[in-house]
Amino acid sequence: MTPRQRFFDCLQRSPPALFEAALWIAVEHDKELNPETVLADFKDLQQRVSYGLPMLPVNELAQPLLRRMNDLGFAQDDFTPLRPQVALLHKVLERRRGQPLALGLIALELARRLEIPMVGVNFPGHFLLRVQGADHLLDPCGGRRLYPNDCRELLQRQYGPNMQLSAEHLQTAEPAQMLQRLSRNLRQLYLTNDDYIDALIDAERVLELGNANASDYLARASLYQRLDCPNAERFDLEHALLLCDDPIQRIRLTERLGHLPPNAIVH
Fold this sequence. Notes:
Largest sheet: 2 strands, parallel
Number of helices: 12
Number of domains: 2
Helix content: 55-70%
Distance between the termini: 32 Å
Structural class: mainly alpha
């Protein structure tokens, strides 16, 4: 099977193999990566984390787990400009630096293996974690507790004072949602670093995971534009137009479509 097929095979298991699926995403960008080796080596990290945890009930170990990871050097990568290595799981494990989502995926795998009840939260702009039933969320970058006011402040710091916190921002993230978010992150990171072919790999996966929005089709259309593929660009612009509710954006999309050459027919 191809890495993409392996990726979807992980998602179809019961329960889905979230961490392994994220490794197969990395394989699409690093052909020399062997997920089985990473999974085997992960046992060492699991033991090091486990040895440092206090003797508490498992439902009280989520924050200590994150703090233990921080003690071992895992932290958010603030170096700019960001590079794809902050989202590729095997690179984050090597460097112990990454985006909140990548750190969260590592924490979720450790929690799963140690039977600590923890789930992901698709909070806008900064992936978070939660223990079911708790009155707070947890930052995967160190384990800080975030109560509703902290979440509101985090949201407005990233999106401005007019952004209102809603229940939708605090929902538990399903495995496919987390992997789609990871794919979007990588798409943007490769695009920022002018690596259009690798960005396209992630852009395609975003769409294959379903529930794609107009922005996802626009992102792939822009990549096809850079790669001089007008037929493929037209396909994605037309889909973006179908999904777009913004009248101004619809006008812009229509104008952009009008500047493309007619679809070429290959005989």
